[in-house]
Design brief:
20% helix, alpha+beta, 51 residues, single chain, DUF4177 domain-containing protein, 3-stranded antiparallel β-sheet
């Protein structure tokens, strides 16, 4: 059975690509991006397989 670990990462608008590229290089897959209600804060939800 596959098991996963998860991470939530705050995103900075002017550096979103660089942040996601770095996490991707570390094996993380983007699951979803959400803006927090009532704020301008953006959070990425990522997962990767546990070994």
């Amino acid at each position: 059975m596959t098991t996963w670990e998860y991470a939530t990462v705050p995103l900075i608008v002017h550096a979103t690509k660089q942040i996601l590229d770095q996490w991707g290089e570390d094996g993380w897959e983007l699951v979803q991006v959400l803006q927090m209600p009532g704020t301008t804060n953006i959070v990425a939800y990522l997962k990767r397989e546990k070994h």
